[in-house]
């Protein structure tokens, strides 16, 4: 699928990008552009988009001069950090500890992206780290942890790997009994090695579903965007949590 810029209204744009595994299978990736109440802009995650998207972004952001910051939310989404910095060199660059280790020569801001200090700097957005799972897992194949960002003005939720939207047509999905929204398949492996981690994750999921019940669009990295009926976000999360329950129970049996 070609790159595209989706206007979700009220100052939020989701950029659907390409990411090919082994140069063949496009699993997709994304970034989001947010207009702050100040009139300036931030990017959620880095993506080195092509000339067509670049023209649209530059037209929105005064040729890039109005981009204030790039917030890299997922510690394992690091491929495009340098390309994004090259496009917007004046923008402040925020990331996790893993971003810094992967790109030590980039001018990272001192505060980590997941810190309360960064959240306080951008009050137009709401951030949340899932409880009970590792943000940066030592097993680099486990990507369930990410920093979620919600934009109340547009009702848009930007999430990388923690939640997925299955890009399966509705009829086929119903025939196969597949869920529309699901937690990342490595969730069980991402749980912290301590008693109560699984229950902490359940509690977080229920809490975030209610806190962000006004979500109208779920923007997921490697899958798709999903328009959500007003007030139905908690139901989507509850169904995803029920599907993840076998993995959570297995973890509890191991003392987590």
Could you explain the architecture of this structure?
- With 256 residues, the protein is an alpha+beta fold.
- The protein has one domain (4-254): Ribonuclease Z/Hydroxyacylglutathione hydrolase-like (Metallo-beta-lactamase, Chain A).
- The protein is built from 8 helices and 15 strands.
- The protein has helices at 51-60, 81-87, 97-102, 116-121, 170-176, 187-190, 197-211, 233-253; strands spanning 4-7, 12-17, 20-21, 25-26, 29-35, 41-44, 67-71, 92-94, 126-128, 148-151, 156-159, 163-165, 181-183, 217-220, 225-227.
- The strands form 4 sheets. It has a 6-stranded mixed beta sheet with strand order 1-2-5-6-7-8, covered by helices on one side.
- Helix 7 packs antiparallel against helix 8 (233-253).
- The longest helix is centred in the last third of the chain and has 21 residues, at 233-253.
- It is globular.
- The N and C termini lie far apart (40 Å).
């Amino acid at each position: 699928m070609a790159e595209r810029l989706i206007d979700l209204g009220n100052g939020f744009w989701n950029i659907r990008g390409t990411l090919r595994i082994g140069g063949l299978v496009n699993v997709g990736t994304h970034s989001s552009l947010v207009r702050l109440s100040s009139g300036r802009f931030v990017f959620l995650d880095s993506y080195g988009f092509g000339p067509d998207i670049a023209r649209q972004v530059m037209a929105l952001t005064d040729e890039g001069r109005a981009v204030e910051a790039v917030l890299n939310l997922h510690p394992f989404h690091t491929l495009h950090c340098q390309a994004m910095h090259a496009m917007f060199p004046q923008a402040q660059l925020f990331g996790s500890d893993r971003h810094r280790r992967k790109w030590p020569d980039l001018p990272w801001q001192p505060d980590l992206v997941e810190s309360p200090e960064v959240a306080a700097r951008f009050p137009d957005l709401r951030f949340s780290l899932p409880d009970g799972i590792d943000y940066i897992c030592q097993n680099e194949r486990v990507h369930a942890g990410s920093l979620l960002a919600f934009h109340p003005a547009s009702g848009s939720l930007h999430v990388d790997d923690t939640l997925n939207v299955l890009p399966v047509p509705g009829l086929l999905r119903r025939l196969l009994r597949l869920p529309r929204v699901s937690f990342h398949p490595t969730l069980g492996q991402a749980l912290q090695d301590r008693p109560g981690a699984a229950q902490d994750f359940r509690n977080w999921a229920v809490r975030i579903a209610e806190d962000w019940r006004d979500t109208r669009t779920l923007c997921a990295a490697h899958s798709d965007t999903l328009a959500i009926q007003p007030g139905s976000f908690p139901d989507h999360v509850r169904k995803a949590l029920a599907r993840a329950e076998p993995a959570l129970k297995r973890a509890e049996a191991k003392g987590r």
